[in-house]
Structures are given as C-alpha cells and as structure tokens.
Amino acid sequence: YGYNEIFPFEKIEIDLIYYFIRMRLAMSVTISAHQKQIQPDNHYLVISEKPAWNLLEKLTNIDLNIVHQTFRSICHFSN
C-alpha cells in the first residue's frame, strides 16, 4: 500500500504537493550552500546539491497542468 491508500490526500494537498517538493529542494540547496561556507573541505555536506539543482530545473520546465493532472490521477481524483 502507498501512503495515499492508508491516508488519502485531499484535493488541495494534491494540488500543493508540487510546490512543497520545490520548496524542500530549495531548502536543501540553501542549506548545502550555507554548510559549504562553514566547512568548505567537507565534500560530504554538498553531495546532494547538484542532483537537487538538476531536479529543481526539471520541475521548473514541466507544464504545471500536467503535474496536477498526474498527481490527481495517481491519487484517484478526477481531473
């Protein structure tokens, strides 16, 4: 079972999840940049920075209508 099968999302949650994902990625790259300034020789702290930036860029270029339709469909809501 997936999360939605046990705790079904409400439509508003589905419509907002795209923004939550982007906010979390933005937090990750911001924290990574801050950590890099504090400990520039600790490469482990920035290991996920590049993949996070790549995903942010991809998400920025996706048609928002398709994103909403996809999440709604996966969670068994009609578009």
UniProtKB/TrEMBL annotation:
Protein name as annotated: Uncharacterized protein
Species per Swiss-Prot/TrEMBL record: Adineta steineri
